[in-house]
Backbone:
C-alpha cells in the first residue's frame, strides 16, 4: 500500500471511528508506521505476545507489517481498533495514569467499535479469526483496589 493510499485510508477510517464511537474527529490524523512483528512485540510487550497493532501515547500508531490492509477487511479492522485508541487519547476521556479497570474499559470500547465497523462492512455478524485467540477485553480487575494500577505501571 502506498503512503498516500494509507493516509487516505486513515482519513476515511477516522470519520467512521468518530461516527461509531461518538468521539470527535481530531484536526490531525495520526501517523501509521508498519513494523516487523518481532519489533512490535518488543516495543509493545517487551516479550513475545499476540499483537497486531499498538497505539502508544503520541501521534503514531504501529501496525504489524504482515497485515494486508489492501485486501483484508479484518486487517483494516485492526487499524479501526487502534484509531479508536487514538481518538480516546485525543478526547482526554481516560487518564494518562491508567488503572487496570481503565485499560479494560478502553479495550472493550475499542473492540466494540472494531466489531461494529466490521459488521457494517460485512453486512452481517462478525466472525473473529481463530488466530485472535483469547480476547483481552474479557479480562477483569476484580482483585484490584479502586485506586490501584493493576501492575500496569500507570
Residues:
Amino acid at each position: 500500500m502506498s503512503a498516500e493510499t494509507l493516509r487516505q485510508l486513515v482519513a476515511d477510517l477516522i470519520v467512521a471511528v468518530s461516527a461509531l464511537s461518538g468521539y470527535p474527529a481530531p484536526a490531525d490524523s495520526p501517523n501509521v508506521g508498519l513494523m516487523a512483528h518481532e519489533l512490535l512485540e518488543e516495543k509493545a510487550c517487551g516479550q513475545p505476545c499476540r499483537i497486531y497493532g499498538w497505539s502508544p501515547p503520541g501521534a503514531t500508531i504501529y501496525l504489524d507489517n504482515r497485515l494486508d490492509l489492501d485486501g483484508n477487511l479484518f486487517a483494516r479492522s485492526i487499524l479501526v481498533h487502534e484509531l479508536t485508541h487514538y481518538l480516546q487519547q485525543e478526547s482526554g476521556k481516560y487518564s494518562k495514569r491508567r488503572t487496570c479497570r481503565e485499560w479494560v474499559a478502553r479495550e472493550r470500547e475499542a473492540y466494540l467499535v472494531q466489531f461494529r465497523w466490521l459488521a457494517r462492512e460485512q453486512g452481517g455478524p462478525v466472525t473473529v479469526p481463530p488466530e485472535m485467540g483469547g480476547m483481552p477485553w474479557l479480562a477483569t480487575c476484580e482483585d484490584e483496589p479502586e485506586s490501584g494500577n493493576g501492575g500496569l505501571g500507570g
